[in-house]
Structure formats: structure tokens, C-alpha cells
Specification:
single chain, 123 residues, alpha+beta, Archease, Possible Chaperone, Chain: A, domain 1, 4-stranded antiparallel sheet, 47% strand, globular
Length: 123
């Protein structure tokens, strides 16, 4: 499945990618205001690989903790490292099981609206 995201800044692009993943995985979820904030740090060799690692970390956490992560904020971003705070929600209605983000057709590029990313998800 092809995922295409546009955002004004790179941190917002990574946040939007995470939210798009949550919306793809679950149609409805219950947000728990008392849910603990989780800190995430992912590293990769370049910006594009960082996007794949970020999405795969969210997939892993969703599978192991039975949550989706629509509430996220990137707190630090370089071309090789992402730091974020995320909060999970319990899915009420699952939509799509995502196995992983892939490197196939992977791209992050400047656009007239800021940045655009394209990533293929293995479902």
C-alpha cells in the first residue's frame, strides 16, 4: 500500500506519517488521557531510512502493546536520528494489519507545501 504524506516541515512530516499509519491500522480508537507518554528514539543512516525505522517502530509497538499511536510529537530530528513522545490508544475497530514500512519507492522531497514523503507499506 502506497502512503503519501505532505507537511510544512520535516518534523511535521514524520508526525503526519505516524498519524496516517494509526488511521490506516484502526478506524476507531479510544484515547486514554491517563495513558503514559512513551519516549521513542530511532536512528538510521539517512532521512529516508529514518522514516522507515520510525514507522516500523510504531508498527512494532502497536503489535506488542495492542495500541495504535495517533498522539505523537517529534521533539528532535536530524537526518540520522528522531526523538519523539507518543501516546497510544486502544483500537475499537481494526482496519488494516500493517507488517512493515519498506524501502520500495521510498522518497522524501521538498515540495511547494514543504515536504512530501512516499513510502510503501507491506500489509
Amino acid at each position: 500500500m502506497l502512503l503519501k504524506i505532505t507537511a510544512p516541515t520535516l518534523p511535521q512530516l514524520f508526525e503526519e506519517a505516524g498519524r496516517a499509519l494509526a488511521e490506516l491500522m484502526a478506524e476507531q480508537w479510544t484515547g486514554d488521557p491517563a495513558a503514559a507518554t512513551e519516549l521513542v528514539v530511532v536512528r538510521a543512516l539517512d532521512r529516508e531510512a529514518l522514516l522507515v525505522e520510525w514507522l516500523n517502530e510504531l508498527v512494532f509497538r502497536s503489535e506488542t502493546r495492542e495500541r495504535v499511536y495517533p498522539y505523537l510529537r517529534v521533539t528532535g530530528l536530524t537526518d540520522r536520528e528522531l526523538q519523539a513522545q507518543i501516546r497510544g490508544a486502544v483500537p475499537n475497530l481494526l482496519r488494516t494489519a500493517v507488517k512493515a514500512a519498506t524501502y520500495h519507492r521510498l522518497q522524501i522531497a521538498p515540495s511547494t507545501d514543504g515536504y512530501t514523503a512516499t513510502v510503501v507499506l507491506d500489509v
